[in-house]
Design a protein that fits this description.
Length: about 775
């Protein structure tokens, strides 16, 4: 529940006494809004209806129209406006696909801007492009191939971009109907470690609080997240939280400009004078989280500042963790965290002195080989102080895609048929009975393993509902080889993207493009689940429909019906209301979804506060401490640890060259001043980065990043990240790399580069 917020303006939180932050680098909201309106000028009415009545299809904060359940006033941001065109643009000219050579070399952005996919199309090995076919032909082609394929060699992947609970659920059921558990969604590349660690610690793989708990908490701790760019309206929640007295702590290797100061367009005071967000900053090294939070716990143990009664009454396993942190030498913690023991102690003191705290984290924490341990270390610290299960206190792994929270909860996952329905023999029997057909009972492959299987020639069918592995997974060259080896690739999508153009290598190779409809084009409406576990109804929005597109849930269902016509009735749904009925039967926590039918209808599974009254979802009702190990690898002398970051993009959907928050262009490499000086580099100088998997050429940006660490934008930087390095517990790829930085001579001089084999652009191994 949000605390009441004092009215009036408070210059203490202003960025600048000069209105509109003149002279500051700041986002140009109003200019960008105008540009979005201009882009959608041919469909302004439809665009407006989507904004007014639909749930936002951007990040996972969630809205109904332009309202939310946290604050009064308008809820809208530039991400939503930038994505709007994907919903309103007309069809592409499908004859353009007849000769792929005309499209090769086009960026993802150029391909997307060609327009929506209107018709089913096919391309066989050796053909120079795609040919339009009828739906009957397309569905038969897919079904006939799938029927003669061993289900162990079939895999499904679902983006979370725009997808809804209904699509995840039907895809889940279809995969199992066809006999495979190889199904996964974008959460694998995202918050998988959070889900795994939180299930171990508290029995739920989800945020425990509501966003309104941010307002009125003593402490908001932001770890490895850049809310200002990635969940922009969260800065509005923080504005109100700060007014109510909240202190904001940031733990990050990079001092994010957007977390230091931000201009919230819908809050007059902030739009004019800006808002200072962070109160305290802890600059750790990349991959340093487990050490940092273990260090903080060590300090609490050493000083006796623990919540002993909470630990005694509501948790298990503390003794082992206490021993573990007590025995961890400070030197090791300092080396691994990239900061000093004084900083870890200072953080622990601030944390312990508060009465309530909310920890928010994102990709900086999860995208590591040690991702699950990182999250466990965050959970341990919160448990040691009893900060889960009471108002204004809890854990918030803030999600990325609208509706991604529902992906695994709806069973689009290799190890579950739905929330609390883990894949095993016993559940398989129960689900088989409920659904009326047998389901496989051994966990399937995770997304990251599917590509390895494809590379090894062990996958015959890859059915991708959206997504773009060529740009979202490490090492694009490896991924290209892998997907080329899959004899049948089905890309169910709304637009073109580069992975669709990869020619099949197999002599029987076939690529099918199946055109889907957006959530707003889905009759009967759909639902999504937000980070605060809110299941929201998004109605169908009247407007133009594209070519022969079909809704995203019915396409896999229709293929499955043709694979097994004798059993087709067992997988059939007439409409989305029927799907919601089935969800409520399969996933007990989603009971209530069957009653959502109008704009605004919603409920939060688990209620506003999960684990309320310290009741944890474990067999004995207690939360569990787990040892959170430190990463094993260390950085060789003279090398850097590189991570990837977001700019003006929505994941692989890039829309801007210049990030107005950081001031960086897409090819700029974030260097600390100290490292740049050591290498004799200055702002704008060209540099070659080299890792074990590839090379990348960019320019120096002097940035407030911890020395020894570098950052580049992805997908451009993915060439530097080797494949086959995953968090063993969750399958999350490690999106970091050890790199060497080689100064190049300025291209303008036309001189030779100092590195003898420097490429003109990024290259993979
Ligand atoms: N505009 C926009 N919005 C988006 C997206 C988008 O692409 N564009 N993507 C959506 C999706 S799917 C997601 S998952 C979210 C992602 O949202 P974020 O996780 O905020 O995304 P990133 O930009 O990757 O930011 C990662 C942050 O972690 C920090 N960091 C890097 N390494 C470490 C580390 O080892 N430890 C710590 N503590 N910090 C570290 C970086 O400096 C950076 O601040 O955003 C969602 N919203
Ligand atoms: N280097 C690096 N890589 C990363 C990350 C990182 O931080 N660094 N972040 C990771 C994270 S957090 C995530 S979530 C993943 C994102 O992984 P995904 O969700 O798989 O990827 P997106 O880039 O969001 O997928 C966009 C593609 O999906 C298709 N698409 C868009 N909308 C729809 C729709 O409504 N229906 C259908 N069927 N298709 C649609 C379009 O072709 C579009 O190009 O990437 C991961 N990859
Ligand atoms: S903050 Fe997220 S949910 Fe809100 S409008 Fe922006 S993209 Fe949509
Ligand atoms: Mo994500």
């Amino acid at each position: 529940m949000a605390k009441s917020v004092p009215g009036g303006w408070n210059p203490k939180h202003w960025v600048n006494l000069v209105p509109t932050g003149l002279g500051e680098v700041k986002p140009h909201h109003f200019r960008e809004m105008f540009r979005a309106a201009w882009e959608n000028r041919d469909q302004l009415g439809y665009a407006w209806r989507i904004l007014r009545d639909g749930c936002c299809d951007g990040c996972a904060l969630g809205t109904t129209g332009m309202k939310d359940w946290t604050m009064p006033g308008t809820h809208l941001c530039m991400i939503r406006l930038n994505l709007l065109r994907m919903n309103t643009m007309p069809a592409l000219d499908h004859t353009l696909l007849e000769d792929i050579s005309r499209l090769e070399g086009k960026s993802g952005r150029e391909l997307r801007n060609l327009g929506r996919l209107p018709y089913p199309m096919v391309r066989r090995k050796g053909e120079k492009g795609f040919r339009r076919i009828t739906w009957d032909e397309a569905l038969d082609l897919a079904a006939e191939r799938i029927r003669r394929t061993d289900p162990e060699r079939i895999a499904f992947y679902l983006t979370s971009r725009g997808l809804t609970n209904e699509v995840y659920f039907v895809a889940n059921k279809v995969a199992r109907f066809l006999g495979t558990n190889h199904i996964d969604n974008a959460a694998r590349l995202c918050h998988a470690p959070s889900t795994v660690a939180l299930k171990k610690a508290i029995g739920y793989g989800a945020t425990t609080i509501s966003y309104s708990d941010w307002i009125g908490t003593d402490l908001l701790i932001l770890v490895g997240t850049n809310l200002a760019n990635n969940q922009p309206v969260a800065t509005k929640y923080i504005y109100y939280a700060k007014k109510a007295g909240t202190r904001v702590i940031v733990v990050n290797p990079y001092k994010e400009e957007g977390l230091e100061r931000y201009w919230i367009p819908s809050v007059t005071e902030s739009a004019l004078f800006g808002t200072r967000i962070m109160d305290e900053f802890f600059q750790i090294g990349t991959g340093g989280d487990a050490a940092f939070f273990n260090g903080a716990l060590k300090h609490l143990v050493e000083t006796g500042k623990l919540n002993d009664s909470f630990i005694r009454e509501h948790t298990a396993g503390f003794e082992e963790v206490r021993r573990f942190v007590s025995e961890l030498p400070w030197e090791e913690l300092e080396k691994s965290s990239g900061t000093t023991r004084e900083e870890m102690r200072r953080f622990a003191e601030i944390y312990a002195d508060a009465n309530s705290s909310v920890t928010v984290w994102s990709m900086g924490v999860t995208q590591h080989r040690n991702g699950t341990n990182n999250v466990l270390s965050i959970a341990n610290l919160a448990l040691a102080l009893g900060r889960i299960g009471k108002p204004h206190s809890g854990l918030c792994p803030i999600r990325g895609h609208s509706g991604v929270q529902g992906g695994a909860e709806m069973g689009a996952a290799p190890d579950s048929y739905g929330m609390d329905r883990p894949v095993n023999e016993e559940t398989a029997k129960a689900i088989g009975k409920l659904w009326g057909f047998p389901v496989p009972d051994k966990p399937g492959m995770k997304a990251s393993s599917m590509i390895q299987a494809a590379h090894g020639g062990k996958l015959d069918v890859l059915y991708s509902i959206g997504g773009n592995f060529l740009e979202t997974l490490p090492d694009p060259q490896y991924v290209r080889e892998a997907i080329a080896r899959v004899p049948l690739r089905i890309h169910q999508d709304i637009v073109l993207n580069p992975q669709m153009l990869v020619e099949p290598g197999d002599p029987e190779g076939l690529v099918l493009l199946l055109p889907g409809r957006t959530r707003y084009e889905t009759p009967g409406g759909v639902t999504e689940t937000t980070t605060e576990r809110r299941v929201i109804f998004s109605p169908e929005i009247p407007g133009p429909r594209i070519g022969e597109t079909r809704t995203e849930w019915e396409i896999p269902m229709q293929i499955a019906e043709r694979v097994h016509p004798d059993r087709a009735h067992l997988i059939h749904f007439d409409n989305t209301a029927q799907i919601r009925e089935d969800i409520s039967r399969t996933v007990p926590a989603y009971d209530g979804i069957q009653r959502l039918r109008e704009k605004g209808d919603n409920f939060q599974w688990g209620g506003p506060l999960l684990c309320e009254g310290y009741k944890f979802n474990t067999p004995d009702g207690r939360a569990r401490f787990h040892i959170a190990r430190l990463p094993e690898e260390s950085l060789p002398e003279g090398r850097f640890i590189l991570s990837t970051r977001r700019g003006k993009q929505f994941n692989s959907i890039v829309w801007g060259e210049h990030d107005s928050l950081t001031g960086a262009k897409r090819d700029e490499i974030f260097f600390s001043r100290q490292d740049a000086n050591r290498l004799g580099l200055k702002e704008g100088d060209p540099v070659l980065l080299r890792s074990e998997s590839g090379e990348y050429r960019g320019r120096v940006k002097i940035a407030r990043i911890r020395p020894g660490n570098l950052q580049v934008h992805w997908p451009e930087g993915n060439v530097l990240i080797p494949y086959e390095r995953f968090d063993p517990d969750s399958g999350e790829p490690d999106y970091n790399a050890v790199v060497e930085a080689i100064p190049l001579r300025n291209e303008e001089t036309g001189g030779e580069t100092e590195a003898d084999d420097a490429p003109a652009s990024a290259t993979g191994s």
